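>> received
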Amino acid sequence: MVFLHGFGNDAHVWDEIVPQLAPYYRALAISLRGHGDSDWGEQPGYDHSLLLADVEAALASLEFERLVLVGHSLGGRVAMRYAGAHPERMAGLVVVDSGPQMDARGTSKIREEVRGQMRKSDASFASPEEYARVLVRQYPAARIETLERLAVHWTRPRADGRYELKQDLRPPKWASGGASSEAGKVARQRTDEAKLLWDALAKVPCPTLVVRGAASDVLAPEVADRMVDEVIPHGQLAVVSRAGHSVMLDNPAGFLTALTDFTLG
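>> returned
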């Protein structure tokens, strides 16, 4: 069972989940390029085709023949691509608050948070504890103990004694401003990406779970319903209460119940 995180997170976002599956699966989490301790690309790269190639290379090196792939947000979109490209290797797919089409309310908020980080001339902190207080504003439903742990993993010390984010903060195309012609290009890319992902889901032969946070402003209910009712051949939906977009942080117990019911039930 392989876990893929969302934009701005890293493999440690799954620390409270992975150990619970370890008795039943060889379970591990991957930090995507530009996140955590993974290398940055030469260009600010969150292009899904590059991320897919990274995951393909990582899984090939591990010599997995069959796997359950769990992906949240950006990681969910990469997981959908992987499942569509390698249906014969899929024992199961779990898409966490992600879909071919994303609600503009949530994605706009994420873009503004990314732009806010990019605008800071010195995105540094006196300590991981100071960064944890920033995370409290971004993840208000998560436990403070969880955010304090993640703040340690998501920062590193600088030579001057302050702490900086490990994440590559060079602006990805989808987060930056720009001319209307560039905005139009990005919009066309989103349309093409949505079609590609809908097509990928239709090819997935394995049992597939779509997990949606009940208060999510990123995965709309109608998109989640279409995924499991009309497109995925063997799809089912779990809606986790007391959770927004970051389901596994907002309500880890509820998320774990949904995941284990699907994978172990």
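>> The chain has ten helices and nine strands.
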